[in-house]
Design brief:
- The protein is 49% helix and 12% strand.
- By secondary structure, it is of the alpha/beta class.
- The strands form seven sheets. It has a seven-stranded parallel β-sheet with strand order 15-16-14-17-18-13-19, sandwiched between helices. It has a seven-stranded mixed β-sheet with strand order 23-24-22-25-26-20-28, with helices on both faces. Strands 1-4-7-8-9-10 form a six-stranded mixed β-sheet, with helices on both faces.
Length: 1019
């Protein structure tokens, strides 16, 4: 009979043999009948210490101290285990005689892992409050450091986890676990899970390494990986944290991320660590900082963030894990003072403390800093948190100038998008390690997201009344002013904020809390993202009329101050938007008693966040605009309702509020979208799960990026200046205010003159905006762009001149309008005449998660573009998918003709099967999804792993699937291609063709392959 359903005992025999024969642990035997089994085996520990050369007195005192610490029952298990770990890691200080100095007895040799004694015993009977028998116990030098519970292949691994958790209770064998560092559970079908003392079942982890190797059972494979003598010693020494009441072991991506960072640190080389939102980025920071400080005696670590709240959080996290000597600097002067001394070795600071504000000549300021850099003691390693926000601009240049020898390591939970790429690589260098969103979902580090798009139709109930109202209220305005007012209040933002629409959304959310899992039971809660503070306040007001009153709060960046409304009084009995916000907050905070050193607003928000986290039933909903959407300490929730246009980093970080692990009843995070962000959500998740196309950059490549960006920036700035010069050339001398007014306004008292010169004025306004944007893009790199100091000053003066000119022309032509006097009237117009329909679900995949939709199928765009009627028509859906795949094949055919010819043939075959009714609809969808994925990725599952870029795969497909030849051609192109070979430069192209001929030995083949090479962005 086949050997399946293997009993637990057979699995245990195999695992014992694995530890003995492969891992080379010494087998102590079956200890089921052995008396007095303990977590500290005195005889084994004494023998090890004697072998290390310690005296009998030293050994006795060290063993006594360890036993006393492990059995101090005045402490709970967490604190006992923490103190035992400290003795294991740092040694036991003993004093043999009166008047003698303390000496350290090291219980484990961390520097030479193989010099320790590794043992394994099975069926270890432990008698405390109850008698229990762990299947396998691992010992190092006689100290129990690991417990392994094994289950038969048909019994859930969860049973083994729960068994070990139960054994840690006081009523069982809690005392035995005071020395334990690893708690393992496994079976032959599910593999291995690991945690430590106090780890809840949902946070038990899986190791993942060499996934291509499937030569043995995962249980055996990962026990060998984790319990290898050197690896287990390394994890114990460098990767264990006691974090504010919770002992933590590393997740596999944290382990390998830190290992990669250690190599960079050894070379004094910076880079970027991208670990997706919610995967424990702050833990990586802490562990890496601890390793640097321990292994580099002259090193100092400065953790930099860009927001005060994150600065406080980082200080707290380091303090919680035992780094008591961290200093949070209070100012730029304090920061530089601390860096000029030998200690502290660990600091945290805001990025803004590195710079001076309002520096007139920034280039001169940078030169001064570079000529007289700050006197910083030691080897500086700067950790930049959320580096996609702080990686460029004046502040970073200031940091680099002040601390020229510092190593910069960036941390981000989101990848660097195209617009960030150049500046990020210039500052930090390449990626050190990445851990993407879909990897974290697959590893169950975070939850997948369920996306729900809801549309609220709005209609204008009386267009005639709206027009009549508008004309009456704007009689005193000219055409330009009326147009500006229409633009301001006719935008989608203002229409979407109509009271009727907001009331529908409030009712929709209240309905969800009555019907949806988790939030209807009070164990989950939600965040509503509003577009602006005014809208957040209106939402808050509407929720007060529901049963959310007292269970709903608003958290924004606003802090009420009377100066906010001093210029808002329009003289009529109406509220402007600023007055409404101010009055809402005054009412909100009226009963709040501020905590010491905190404002009323800060106190209110602290109370709200604490209640949101600890009492979800009593704080169901927080309404936000920007706050609480980013940062590792932002609260998690079950639902996020988005009524704000968002994209890229901001959107991804916001939706990740709901992907954190929680209790077992939380299976997904839910994103409800009222702004039709589906394509942006798809793009955001796709970017964060895609293969990176620029993580292989070397330092030299960054110089090229910098050069190209600055060259383009200068070109745009010069063009903007030239355009404005040309525009203003007809202005008569002496070109003062009067002459400019005459040219751009004519006689401002004559409406016909103003109308006749409207085109010139609009061109001037647009030209000035283009100038400002062009200057802002390279303001920090003017000198690098080749401008002299005099030219830089002249450009700044020119910009100042044009800004003043714009204001003068606007004032003279009456094209400035104070909209405050119209706010209440326009708001009434929108609220009265725009009616909203009930929300309707417009998501085509309500039962699929985002990962399934986007990463696994890639066909969401096609189906999402269909009408409701077509979505219910299987034939129409099928044709839409096929058209989507076909258009992708046609679009990319030139990039890889052979591959896309193959895909086209497969598509035709699938279509024929569908039309011939030779395949079920379910099977059709499975086939078309796989085909769509292959088309999207440009590869199939059988594509060799060495072909790790689109260019290599294209060559492989078009060279008869000859892997060796494809790699040879790729290397030839990379080595021979001259700079700037694309375009019309025939001579440079010929260089590549000549090199290709040496490989292909066929002129026609060279021309064919070269046409494919030209299509590859990689070259």
């Amino acid at each position: 009979m086949p050997n399946v359903g293997q009993i637990e005992r057979e699995t245990q025999k195999r695992i014992i043999a694995l530890f003995k024969n492969e891992l080379k642990y010494t087998y102590l035997g079956n200890w089921e009948e052995r008396l007095d089994n303990k977590n500290i085996e005195d005889g084994l520990l004494t023998a090890y210490l004697a072998k290390r050369g310690y005296t009998r007195n030293q050994i006795e005192r060290a063993v006594h101290e360890l036993q006393h610490t492990s059995t101090n029952y005045n402490e709970d298990l967490y604190n006992r285990n923490k103190k035992v770990y400290s003795l294991l890691r740092y040694g036991v200080k003993v004093k043999v005689g009166v008047g003698e100095n303390y000496e350290t007895v090291h219980l484990i040799d961390w520097d030479h892992p193989l010099e320790n004694d590794f043992y394994i015993a099975e069926e270890v009977t432990v008698i405390e409050e109850k008698e229990k028998r762990p299947d396998v116990v691992l010992y190092i030098n006689g100290i129990a450091i690991g417990v392994l519970e094994l289950k038969r292949s048909t019994v859930s691994i969860g049973d083994g986890i729960r068994q070990s958790i139960r054994n840690q209770n006081k009523d069982f064998i809690e005392k035995f676990f005071s020395t334990v560092q690893f708690v393992f559970a496994g079976n032959d079908t599910e593999g291995l899970r690991y945690g430590t003392i106090g780890t809840p079942e949902k946070f038990f982890l899986t190791w993942k390494e060499d996934i291509e190797d499937d030569s043995r059972l995962q249980l055996d494979k990962y026990l060998i990986k984790m319990c290898n003598k050197e690896r287990i010693i390394e994890i114990m020494h460098n990767f264990i944290l006691f974090d504010a009441g919770m002992k933590k072991l590393p997740r596999v991506h944290q382990y390998f991320g830190i290992k990669a960072a250690q190599e960079h640190v050894k070379r004094y080389e910076g880079g970027i660590i991208w670990h997706t939102q919610g995967s424990g980025k702050s833990i990586v920071m802490v562990l890496l900082a601890k390793w640097i400080l321990e292994n580099k005696p002259n090193a100092r670590v400065v953790v930099i963030t860009d927001r005060d709240e994150l600065d406080k959080q980082i200080e707290r996290v380091f303090t919680d894990v035992g780094e008591k000597d961290i200093i949070r600097t209070s100012s730029g002067r304090d920061l530089m003072l601390q860096l000029s001394k030998t200690s502290p070795r660990l600091l945290c600071s805001l990025v803004h403390k590195f710079g001076k504000r309002d520096v007139d000549n920034f280039e001169r300021f940078i030169k001064e800093l570079e000529s007289q850099p700050a006197h910083a003691v030691g080897e500086l390693f700067l950790f930049i948190d959320e580096c996609h926000r702080t990686q460029s601009g004046k502040l970073h240049r200031t940091m680099k100038a002040m601390l020229p020898n510092a190593v910069f390591i960036g941390f981000t939970g989101t990848p660097l998008l195209k617009k960030d790429k150049a500046t990020s690589l210039e500052v930090f260098g390449k990626y050190i390690h990445t851990y993407k969103f879909n990897e974290a979902v697959e590893d169950k580090v975070i939850l997948d997201l369920m996306y729900d798009a809801r549309d609220i139709d709005q209609k204008l109930t009386s267009p005639a009344k709206v027009d009549e109202w508008f004309e009456i209220k704007t009689r005193g305005l000219n055409d330009f002013q009326k147009a500006e007012l229409r633009k301001k209040w006719g935008t989608m933002q203002k229409i979407l904020s109509a009271r009727s629409r907001m009331e529908k959304i409030v009712a929709d959310i209240v309905f969800d809390f009555s019907t949806k899992p988790r939030i209807n039971s009070g164990s989950g809660n939600a965040i509503l993202v509003a577009s602006e503070i005014y809208e957040a306040c209106r939402y808050y007001e509407l929720f007060q009329k529901t049963d959310f009153k007292g269970k709903c709060a608003i958290v924004t960046s606003y802090n009420p101050s009377t100066k906010d409304i001093t210029t808002e009084d329009t003289g009529s009995n109406t509220e402007t938007e600023k007055e409404y916000i101010y009055n809402t907050y005054k009412e909100l905070l009226k009963d709040v008693v501020p905590k010491p050193k905190k404002t009323k607003t800060e106190t209110y928000e602290d109370n709200v966040k604490e209640k949101f986290l600890k009492e979800p039933a009593n704080m169901k909903l927080i309404i936000v605009v920007n706050k609480l959407l980013t940062g590792f300490d932002a609260p998690s929730c079950t639902y996020i309702y988005i009524d704000k246009s968002m994209q890229d980093h901001g959107l991804f970080q916001a939706i990740c509020r709901v992907n954190r692990l929680d209790s077992d009843d939380k299976q997904f995070g839910y994103v409800v979208d009222y702004k039709d962000l589906f394509r942006k959500v798809e793009k955001a998740v796709a970017v964060y799960t895609a293969e990176l196309d620029y993580d292989e950059f070397e330092k030299a490549d960054c110089d090229i990026l910098l050069k190209n960006r600055i060259e383009q920036g200068r070109e745009r700035l010069d063009e903007a200046i030239e355009h404005l010069d040309f525009l203003c050339e007809p202005v008569m001398p002496p070109k003062d205010t009067f002459q400019y007014m005459r040219y751009f306004c004519g006689n401002p008292e004559i409406p016909e003159d103003l109308k006749a010169r409207e085109v010139q004025r609009m061109a001037l306004y647009k030209g000035i905006v283009a100038l400002i944007r062009a200057y802002a893009n390279i303001a920090d790199d003017m000198e690098a762009a080749g401008y002299t100091e005099k030219e830089i000053m002249d450009i700044k003066k020119l910009i100042d001149f044009y800004l003043k000119l714009r204001e003068e022309i606007k004032m003279a032509s009456h094209e400035t309008t104070d909209f405050k006097t119209y706010e209440a009237d326009m708001r009434y117009l929108i609220d009265s005449y725009i009616q909203a329909e009930d929300p309707r679900n417009i998501s085509p995949f309500t039962e699929m998660s985002l990962i399934e939709i986007i990463v696994k199928t890639g066909i969401a765009d096609a189906i999402n573009s269909l009408s409701e009627n077509m979505k219910s028509n299987k034939e129409a859906v099928a044709e839409a998918i096929e058209n989507n795949v076909r258009s992708k094949i046609i679009k990319d055919h030139l990039i890889d003709p052979a591959y896309f010819d193959e895909m086209s043939t497969l598509l035709k075959a699938v279509i024929k099967e569908r039309k011939d009714n030779a395949i079920s609809y379910e099977e059709y969808l499975k086939k078309i999804a796989e085909l769509a994925r292959n088309v999207q990725q440009g590869k199939t599952d059988s594509t060799p792993k060495s072909l790790n870029t689109p260019a290599k795969r294209a060559l492989f497909n078009n060279l008869g699937k000859n892997e060796e030849l494809a790699i040879a051609v790729h290397n030839t192109v990379m080595e021979s291609k001259p700079d700037g070979w694309r375009g019309e430069n025939t001579a440079k192209k010929q260089v590549i063709k000549s090199a290709l001929y040496q490989v292909l030995q066929d002129q026609n083949e060279v021309e064919r392959i070269f046409s494919i090479v030209e299509q590859q962005n990689e070259y």
